[in-house]
Design goal:
single chain, binds zinc ion, six-stranded parallel β-sheet, alpha/beta, Rossmann fold, 6 strands, globular
């Protein structure tokens, strides 16, 4: 087995104090770093994605129109504009662990990391294929949107997928629970760090 870790969108705007904060986001950033420090040998490759929107325009309707309230389903407050502090990785995520950086959402909504590319224009799927990855763990933010979409696309790409759900944080409890159920329905393993350690 060749295994990669995909760290989804652990960015300032998705953590406490950010434009689109999730509860527990900062703790997730620290816990992912701890996991890599303690069990980094588990991975042949570590990839991190970032939401990386254009400053101009509404990014294909992804940002709620000025003067209207976002619905937090498919319109959102302005977040993760490329080059701003909100788009940077959270400081508790130690970036020295990251082998490959992928950005997504330039001018359009992009929930899945598989819609993104490296600075060289290589897709996430190509990056994983280069190394012969056949199994991925997916962690990060948010469980109910970008983690879910990335895990489902990994599954569609024929990879064996595990979501370590205590290394994720969600927009809302109800949508998190629905997302985890949907992932399991697709044959994705949903587990915790403790279960992983015991396995
Ligand atoms: Zn976005």
């Amino acid at each position: 087995m060749t295994r990669a870790l995909i760290i989804v969108d652990v960015q300032n705007d998705f953590t406490e104090g950010g434009a689109l904060a999730t509860d527990g986001g900062a703790a997730v950033a620290a816990a992912i770093t701890r996991h890599l420090n303690e069990d980094g040998d588990r991975y042949d490759l570590v990839v991190a994605t970032r939401d990386w929107h254009d400053a101009d325009g509404d990014n294909g309707g992804h940002f709620a129109a000025e003067g209207t309230e976002p619905n937090f389903v498919d319109t959102w407050p302005v977040h993760c504009v490329a080059g701003t502090p909100g788009a940077e990785y959270h400081e508790s995520l130690e970036t020295r662990h990251i082998d490959i950086h992928v950005v997504k959402g330039m001018g359009e909504p992009a929930y899945s990391g598989f819609e993104g590319a490296t600075s060289d224009g290589e897709t996430l799927q190509a990056v994983l294929a280069d190394v012969g990855v056949d199994e991925v763990d997916v962690v990060g933010i948010a469980t109910d949107y970008c983690v879910k979409a990335t895990a489902l696309d990994a599954c569609r790409a024929g990879l064996q997928v595990t979501v370590i759900h205590d290394l994720t944080s969600a927009v809302a409890d109800a949508t998190r629970d629905a997302a985890l159920t949907a992932l399991q329905t697709h044959g994705i393993t949903v587990t915790t760090l403790a279960e992983l350690a015991a396995a």
